[in-house]
Specification:
This protein has 365 residues and is mainly β. The protein has a single domain, classed as 7 Propeller (Methylamine Dehydrogenase, Chain H), CATH 2.130.10. Helices cover 0% and strands 55% of the residues. It is built from no helices and 29 strands. The radius of gyration is 20 Å and the shape is globular.
């Protein structure tokens, strides 16, 4: 799809296009690029460029010609926009506001024309987190105060910080899963536990104790794919939950990770699920260094296979970005640096000059 200077840190597949973020140096700028999924040259999204780091612009998702971006450039306040990849026109969905009691964007996701996000509003024990859903086909935009055009479908009171929503995922049919941290501030109940909770119908899908963390999750109408990790040892497990039967399956057991590798996403597997496929990227020890792999699991055939493998030496100069899945296709990025990048174990957080990336896509059967 593309061969460019800089580091591609995120690749997202849509129904028509592929979009990715490209960072040119540790302090930015970060740009958003796109290309037609079938054929066509890559182009930069007009106006989607920000200085200040390699994570100031994040792609939430794609629908037709719209890419949803979460941007935190220039200030510490984030905003959520739907941007036309061809013309650069923006539709504001949500904007954080300055007072301590103002709005904060916690997380967001896109599936088809539906965009969902978590926003935190209020101060102290009066603060609440709302789950908001909006349709990208609508014309409404947020007003200057930051109030978005979406519909609130769930509210969680943050009394004493006992239950704190930290992530959200939406399925094609509209099902919502919220990731929550249970701080145990009330009577010590569930101290340090984490869970994945279905909003409609309300039920708990996954719950783990204080020694294990839910690092990532993705949702389809059929399955929930998620990663559990032990932050102390670096062990990780990729699981699959059948939403119809309730059966669980462990897809992958990793670890312990090499000591210098960061104990968080993207170093840990972050599954991407769509249709009958679940894909993730993992970094493991290999003879003389490391190896990055992208694996794909077929939910129907119940079979996993290695899609691509990239060898690296101890100097840490070759990496794969986490994959994206859509319509029986998988897209990812291959990043190579001229010199070792960041802490041993990955290019996470740093993009040294001289980096070069390739954006790749392939069908899966």
């Amino acid at each position: 799809m593309a061969d460019q200077p800089g580091a591609v840190r995120q690749v997202v597949l849509g129904d028509r296009h592929v979009a990715w973020t490209r960072c040119l140096a540790p302090d930015g700028p970060t740009e958003v690029w796109w290309a037609p999924r079938e054929a066509g040259r890559p182009r930069r999204v007009p106006g989607a460029r920000a200085a200040g780091g390699c994570d100031v612009v994040q792609i939430v998702g794609l629908h037709r010609d719209l890419v949803v971006l979460r941007t935190t450039a220039r200030t510490t306040l984030a905003r959520l926009d739907a941007v036309d990849v061809r013309r650069g026109t923006r539709r504001l969905l949500e904007a954080e506001t300055l007072p301590a009691s103002g709005t904060r964007i916690v997380a967001a996701d896109v599936e088809g024309p539906r965009v969902v996000w978590l926003r935190s509003v209020g101060v102290g024990d009066a603060r609440v987190t709302e789950t908001v859903v909006a349709d990208l086909r609508g014309r409404a935009t947020a007003d200057p105060s930051g109030a978005g055009p979406g519909r609130v479908v769930d509210t969680r009171a943050l009394i004493a910080g006992a239950v704190v929503p930290t992530g959200v995922r939406v399925a094609p049919s509209g099902g919502l899963v919220v990731r929550e941290a249970l701080a145990g501030a009330l009577y010590g109940y569930g101290t340090g536990a984490q869970r994945l909770r279905m909003v409609v119908p309300p039920r708990q899908l996954v719950r783990v104790g204080p020694d294990i963390r839910v690092e990532a999750a993705d949702l389809t109408d059929r399955v929930l794919a998620y990663t559990l990790a032990d932050p102390v040892t670096g062990r990780a497990w990729v699981h699959l939950l059948d939403r119809t039967t309730g059966r669980r399956r462990m897809l992958r057991r990793l670890g312990p990770l090499p000591a210098p590798v960061p104990r968080a996403v993207p170093a840990l597997p972050s599954p991407a699920a769509q249709g009958r496929h679940v894909a993730w990227r993992e970094r493991t020890r290999a003879a003389g260094g490391y190896a990055d792999r992208v694996l794909v699991f077929d939910v129907v055939r119940r079979r996993a296979r290695v899609l691509v493998r990239l060898r690296d030496d101890r100097r840490q100069r070759a990496f794969l970005a986490p994959p994206s899945v859509r319509a029986a296709r998988v897209a990812w990025a291959e990043v190579r640096t001229r010199r070792p990048a960041g802490p041993v174990g990955g290019f996470y957080g740093l993009t040294p000059p001289g980096s070069r990336s390739r954006v790749l896509i392939t069908p899966v059967r």
